[in-house]
Write a structure and sequence with these properties.
Blueprint: H1 7-16, H2 25-34, H3 38-47, H4 53-56, H5 59-65, E1 81-82, E2 86-88, E3 93-95, E4 104-106, E5 112-123, E6 127-132, E7 138-141, E8 145-156, E9 159-170, E10 179-183, H6 201-211, E11 212-214, E12 218-224, H7 228-239, E13 245-249, E14 257-263, H8 265-275, H9 292-302, E15 303-306, E16 309-314, H10 317-329, E17 335-339, E18 352-358, E19 367-369, E20 372-383, E21 387-394, E22 400-403, E23 406-409, H11 412-429, H12 443-449
Antiparallel strand pairs: 1-21, 2-3, 4-5, 5-21, 6-7, 6-20, 8-9, 8-10, 10-20, 11-12, 12-14, 13-14, 15-16, 16-18, 17-18, 19-20, 22-23
């Protein structure tokens, strides 16, 4: 691509034709019909890092009015995340391909916000897998923006020091030694009021979430032969309400196991409403985030204690993230990742998750600053496109949300805002009567979209 010294030079070059340009309107329409989205994304990706886009894309016109306009908000269309990306809702977790407009999810500050748009498309951009020492790998297209911490050199007199800086960067810019960021404190609902929330309820609830089942009339909890103590603890809790507890063998298990059965319509309905989503999958109650007793019950049923280490395994992403954020709220630095059971395991075809918390760990790779956890990036991998990818728009002013627990951005409105500002500034430079007051707002762009496509 050639260099251009002014917008007029660029316009003249397009009119006269130059290598790589497309000037025939019919050919343009035909090409856009075949490649509606990847065309412009690929063009911007090829410009990235060359410095030429700052002139070719009329970058300097905006700088005449706003010197602060810089490469941190490049004029590209923000792409998306892999469909397996986990999004935290107000009551459970979903993968991003199952998020709908109107859902309530967590934003970059750990507050609840509404989803106002969704999109799915085929992207030709590379997919970057970001692996860390503590979170589930995040997969994003190369130009998707993610909030990171980076230690950068700072010259103070004659002394060079490393200073931690928070910044939005594209996935392709992330490197080993950077940090992904997650908020520690999440907004939670009020604890429900019920006669069943007596002493022992939270541990019982945790154990039930791990190995229990109920409909709206009765409940069942499964134990292995060495868990007689846990059976007695559950029985003691239920007996205080006058419920009749029965013990029966569980013949389907390969190991010696037994079940607790209890007819308790009122309690069963209470648990059913609190612990299941609309798809009848177990969820970690939002109000319970931070309860050590519920964690202990879950670990007793589906985990293990090893000295000062607790390990929790589950095929439920909602339970896994509930435990993970409970540890964070309690002041620890847990890790969460995929867990592959052995080939002989009962759930070998089910995706599982493992949360580990070491209470007195001497060396932590992650650290806390300003109520946020910084998780070190260990490596990145690149996979060329095309890929089916997803994105969501949210109400919060940062236009950011939690993806696999880490802060990611939706930059469609920012890209559109940049295009508007470039057009507006170019019109002013060209002599049209228009005043430059300030950068355009992104919120109005989001609010006016009204569809799941790009802004």
């Amino acid at each position: 691509m050639s260099d251009f010294n002014s917008p007029k030079d660029l316009l003249r070059a397009y009119k006269e034709g130059f290598v790589g340009s497309i000037c025939d309107p019919e050919d343009v329409d035909k090409l856009l019909g075949e490649l509606p989205h990847p065309l412009f994304g690929a063009a911007a990706y090829n410009l990235y890092g060359s410095g030429k886009g700052k002139v070719a894309l009329l970058y300097k016109n905006v700088q005449k009015f706003d010197p602060g306009f810089g490469p941190s908000e490049r004029q590209v269309t923000g792409d998306c995340l892999d469909g397996s990306t986990i999004i935290m809702k107000n009551d459970h977790c979903e993968t991003i391909n199952n998020i709908n407009v109107g859902d309530t999810i967590y934003d970059s500050n750990g507050k609840l916000t509404k989803v106002i748009s969704t999109q799915v498309k085929i992207s030709n951009n590379p997919l970057i897998t970001i692996k860390t020492r503590g979170s589930i790998p995040l997969k994003a297209t190369s130009d998707h923006r993610i909030l990171i911490g980076r230690k950068e050199e700072n010259l103070n007199g004659t002394t060079i020091t490393k200073v931690l800086t928070k910044k939005w960067v594209t996935a392709q810019e992330i490197k080993k030694g950077d940090y992904l960021i997650t908020p520690i404190s999440l907004s939670t609902k009020e604890k429900p009021i019920s006669k069943f929330m007596q002493n022992g309820f939270e541990w019982f609830l945790g154990y039930f979430l791990g190995d229990g089942w109920c409909d709206d009339k009765q409940l069942e909890i499964t134990f292995t032969e060495h868990q007689e103590t846990f059976f007695n603890m559950c029985s003691e809790y239920l007996s205080q309400f006058g419920f009749n507890v029965r013990k029966s063998e569980y013949s389907k298990s390969k190991t010696t196991a037994f079940r607790l059965r209890c007819w308790c319509p009122e309690l069963a309905s209470f648990l059913r409403e609190m612990c299941y989503d609309n798809n009848k999958k177990k969820i970690f109650p939002n109000w319970a985030i931070g309860s050590i007793n519920i964690i202990n019950g879950l670990v007793a049923s589906d985990g293990m204690n090893k000295g000062r280490k607790q390990i929790f395994d589950s095929s439920s992403i909602s339970l896994a993230y509930g435990v993970y954020y409970s540890y964070l709220k309690l002041g620890y630095k847990p890790t969460i990742n995929y867990f592959h059971r052995s080939a002989k395991g009962a759930y070998k075809e089910t995706q599982s998750y493992r949360v580990i918390c070491i209470f007195d760990k001497q060396k932590n790779y992650s650290f806390v600053k300003d109520d946020e956890l910084y998780i070190p990036v260990s490596s990145t991998e690149i996979k060329e496109g095309p890929h089916e990818v997803y994105d969501i728009g949210v109400e919060c002013k940062e236009h950011a949300f939690l993806a696999n627990g880490c802060i990611a951005h939706n930059c469609v409105s920012h890209s559109t805002r940049n295009a508007i500002d470039v057009t507006r500034s170019t019109e002013i430079v060209g002599g049209e009567r228009e005043e430059w007051v300030a950068r355009s707002a992104t919120e109005a762009i989001y609010g006016s979209r009204g569809h799941g496509g790009q802004g």
